[in-house]
Amino acid sequence: MPKNPKTTDGPRDKAGAKVVGWLLLGLVVIFGGLYVAAHYVAGDKVPRNTTVSGVRIGGHPQDEAADRLRAGLADKVDREIATTIEGEQVAVVPSEAGLGVDYDASVAEAGGEESWDPVRLWNYFTGGDEFEAEVTVDDAAYNAYRARLDEQHGTPARDGAIAFDGAEISTTEARTGSALDPSDTLTALREAYLDDAPSTVALEMAEVVPQVDASDVREALDGFASPAVAAPVTLRFEGSDVKVFPADYTAALSLVPTDGELVPTLDGAALSEVVDGLVTAGAPVDASVALVGGRPQVVPARPGVTFDRAQLEAGFLDTVAKPQGQRTLTLDATAAQPDFTTKDARDLQVRERVSSFTTYFPYAEYRNINIGRAAEIIDGTLLKPGETFSLNDTVGERTEANGFTKGYVISDGILVQDLGGGVSQMATTLFNAMFFAGLEDVEHKPHSFYIDRYPVGREATVAWGAVDLRFRNDTPYGVLIDTNVTPSTPSSSGVVTATMYSTKYWDITTTTGERYNITQPETRRIDSLTCHPNEGYGGFDIDVVRYFEPVNGNTESREDEVFSTTYTPSDTVICTNPDAVDE
User: Fold this and answer.
1) Is residue 573 within 8 Å of residue 449, measured between CB atoms?
2) Do residues 443 and 536 share a domain?
């Protein structure tokens, strides 16, 4: 019987297969070991024959290669780049121009990064090439450096412009400029930065065209600026017309360069301020009289107008550019007329100085403050015929909040400190101005004892809530009161002047009699920490007469007016408290 092949050949075939398997496994192990060994040798190294910008870095790990590249390029990265701009030699410092080298990126680009790629491992042993270093640019530093070069060697372009100066127009001519082209300049500097054989780089200036040229200026002149100053604009407030003139409103206008054009722009707040100067938003303002250049002049009344400011701003630019005859802007508004009109103010006939009086006071800071503050409040007061002036009502209570400070006042015949000390100096000055203007004395009280810097028998004191200075304008004309103070200094006296303006109605003269009923001072001993010593003097009575002579067509007659004053003695004060402070 023939033998079964499977039974005869099986063991031999199995043995052969095992040999082949072991052989393949051995080859895998051998090649795997070689592959691992190759990675160990070259896996994180730059291919052997690699150079970057002329520096050999092949065969070294990435960090070491980067250090070698940094050392090899040290002279180049710090080397100035020779350039010319418009024929002038300019040395560019790379670091200032924002140029630098990324050493790690340069090594990575040359193949110096860890890899298991067999092609990468093969290249290490057989490859390597020439590369250029990765140059970095700090855009902010570069742009700032280029701007400095432009400032030194270029010419800035100048936009054409239009400006208003009152009713006049001024123009600025457009001008073409020159500057370094940002892209071309950077390319030229990068190419020369690490060059092995650098040559001088010619940096070319490029023409810079202004955004607003001569044609844009002409268009803005014809379309807006010239019409804007050609004529006033009329604002119509429901029957009450107000003219606004170019000299006033052009401060609110401007032509702003926008996308190559000069665009008319309105400052709404500035325009509203101009209109507010012509009308009063809300309540009307009465006419008045004020000193202008040292002469009384009527300040016209202003109607009170309530209007929509947004409507004014929205329509003004269009209106101001229209031709004459069409320059009216109607606003939804209501108008209210003042109670005291400009005609009423003119009828007061405040035309000339009718009296003026000046007094002087010794240095004290509290006097400067208090007298100055009183003068500030009183100044500009206008008395209409029949009106009565009250110093207390006008000045108000002498408090710190009202601008006053503590000073010496007379109380019970001696000097004590209180708020508003010194204001009686203003009362005396004002009383004398009233006296010589021929106005009616309604209320005045002389000081309790005589103060020698005041005219004897013609002076007045005031105290809040107790003693006032009041006089009435009993003439047919208005009276404008002007008060002025020159502060005292340690070396000079202060000066207070009160002047009254009106139409002269009386010519006033006066006489002062002899002193009589002489009384002697007493001596007081005061045990107080706030005691103020005083050297006393006697009291007396005195009479002053005011005479009225009518002038300027005045047909009235008035009897002589007698002012009788009794001054008590000013007592000698001796301070007995050793700790008393003479403030």
Assistant:
1) no
2) yes
